[in-house]
Design brief:
- The protein has a two-stranded antiparallel sheet.
- The protein has 10 helices and 2 strands.
- The longest helix has 29 residues.
- It has a single domain, classed as Growth Hormone, Chain: A (Up-down Bundle), CATH 1.20.1250.
- Helix 3 runs antiparallel to helix 5.
- It is an all-alpha fold.
- It is globular, with a radius of gyration of 19 Å.
């Protein structure tokens, strides 16, 4: 086995660039969907908290309370992800993706009858599970549901190479984080387009993307005989 194969096999399947890019696309897509349909953010709870307190301080409690359900649902999703890690160990990431897929299918079915419940609660739980379960790319901390940290690491890594004498391999990390930001944006664009043009079928696209992630997470590593 070559050095390259050894390095590749040392990377967890749920931390590969391919998996993380697919998840970033799904993260941007879902956020665009929930913002257009429900006026809340599935992933960016910072924005929901800001809107909550802005409207609360203005005395508009109807609008303020509109942002409470996704925050609570996101919290519940984190708990579910933590429980899966405890009981499933190495299989937790694959199981979490399977749960996300089931949730999105159910949400898509219920959305026409119970749009607020299905949208703000269900999708925020899906986003939370992804945020809690997939936190690294090739061993380095990242996010697949927002770009702030990824943008910071892009700039810091370039700066470290140019001014700090960091090894050129650092540029690869910078490229990965830049790609995460770009793919997240592409996901948001695709989500906005699909939500406006095929709203009843829009959630089918992230389901397909997550199915691809599930297949990648459950694939037998190279060199391992089943």
């Amino acid at each position: 086995m070559s050095t390259l194969d050894v390095a590749a096999s040392a990377i967890r399947r749920d931390e590969t660039v391919e998996v993380v890019m697919l998840l970033a696309f799904a993260g941007g897509y879902i956020d665009a969907f929930t913002w257009i349909i429900h006026g809340v953010m599935a992933n960016a709870q910072t924005a929901n908290v800001i809107f909550l307190w802005v409207y609360a301080m203005a005395g508009d409690w109807t609008k303020a309370l509109h942002f409470v359900p996704p925050i609570l649902a996101f919290t519940a999703g984190i708990v579910v992800a933590a429980w899966l890690r405890r009981v499933a160990g190495e299989r937790a990431s694959g199981l979490s993706v399977l749960v996300e897929i089931i949730f999105l299918i159910v949400i898509g079915i219920l959305h026409n009858r119970l749009p607020d419940l299905a949208g703000t609660l269900g999708i925020s739980m899906v986003a939370a599970m992804q945020a809690a379960m997939f936190v690294k790319v090739e061993g380095t901390v990242c996010s697949t549901v927002m770009i702030t940290g990824n943008m910071r690491q892009t700039v810091e890594n370039v700066f470290a190479v140019v001014y700090g004498g960091a090894p050129m391999g650092t540029l690869r990390k910078s490229a990965i984080f830049f790609a995460l930001c770009a793919v997240f944006g592409c996901g948001a664009a695709a989500g906005a387009l699909a939500t406006e043009t095929i709203p009843k079928l829009a959630l089918g696209i992230p389901v397909i993307v997550l199915l691809m992630v599930l297949l990648r997470c459950e694939a037998t590593p190279r060199g391992v005989v089943a």
